[in-house]
Design goal:
The chain is mostly helical. The protein folds into 2 domains: 56 residues, no CATH class; 41 residues, no CATH class. The protein has 4 helices and no strands.
Length: 97
């Protein structure tokens, strides 16, 4: 799964490079690859990783982890950034379908 994070960063870099070069086809190819990677990655998280976590982590430990993720998101990523990114993705999905 960590390798997929590396692969995702490569897709993002390729999209950025394609934008700078105004290469629409290159952007579409990188974006499609990234989309497919994310879909598969999220499915693995939902069907395997989170199922395993539920078996080994009790509810209190999971609640503690959730709180720490929330604190990290608020202090490192920034307030509202997560929601802004989701709104941007939803807008793009409507515009480009």
């Amino acid at each position: 799964m960590l390798k997929e994070h590396e692969e995702g960063r490569k897709y993002i870099a390729a999209m950025s490079e394609a934008l700078e070069a105004q290469d629409l086809l290159g952007f579409k190819q990188a974006a499609s690859g990234y989309r497919d990677l994310l879909r598969n990655h999220i499915e693995k998280e939902n069907q395997v990783l989170f199922v395993m976590a539920d078996k080994v982590l009790d509810e209190n430990k999971q609640d503690d982890m959730f709180e720490k993720f929330e604190q990290y998101e608020e202090s490192i990523i920034g307030h509202g950034v997560h929601e802004e990114l989701h709104a941007m993705i939803e807008r793009w999905a409507r515009e480009f379908q």
